[in-house]
Design goal:
The chain has no helices and ten strands. It is mainly β and about 110 residues long. The protein is globular.
Length: about 110
C-alpha cells in the first residue's frame, strides 16, 4: 500500500502513560524513523543514557527543563530544539509541565 501522508493534530490525541511522569503518543513509525508527542509532568525526567545508533531530536513546544548533553547543562524552554547524536550521553529533568515532539532516526553504523 502506498503511503499518502497523514494529518495529525497534537492536542487531544490520546496518550499512554510511559512511566516516570511521561505520557506519549507515537504519531509516525516508519522503518528507521519514529516521531512521538510527549507530555511530561513537573519533576519528570531520566538519568544519563545514550543511544548506539539513534539520532534524537527534541522539539520543545511548551514548558521548561534542564537538559544535560555531553556534559553541558542547558536551560531549555518552549521554542527550543535539542539534538542528541548517537553515543552522546544525555539526561533531562522537567521544571514544569512540558510538551515535546521527539524524533528518532536510526543511523546504523556502516
Amino acid at each position: 500500500m502506498e503511503e499518502k501522508g497523514r494529518y495529525i493534530r497534537l492536542e487531544g490525541s490520546p496518550q499512554s502513560e510511559l512511566g516516570n511522569g511521561f505520557f506519549g503518543n507515537n504519531l509516525v513509525e516508519l522503518d528507521g524513523f519514529e516521531m512521538t508527542y510527549l507530555t511530561c509532568d513537573e519533576g519528570a525526567g531520566h538519568g544519563f543514557h545514550s543511544h548506539e545508533d539513534i539520532e534524537e531530536v527534541l522539539v520543545f513546544l511548551e514548558g521548561a527543563c534542564t537538559f544535560t548533553l555531553g556534559g553541558t547543562d542547558y536551560d531549555v524552554k518552549g521554542g527550543s530544539v535539542i539534538h542528541a547524536p548517537p553515543k552522546i550521553e544525555h539526561k533531562v529533568r522537567y521544571k514544569e509541565k512540558s510538551k515535546i515532539l521527539r524524533i528518532k532516526i536510526a543511523r546504523p553504523e556502516k
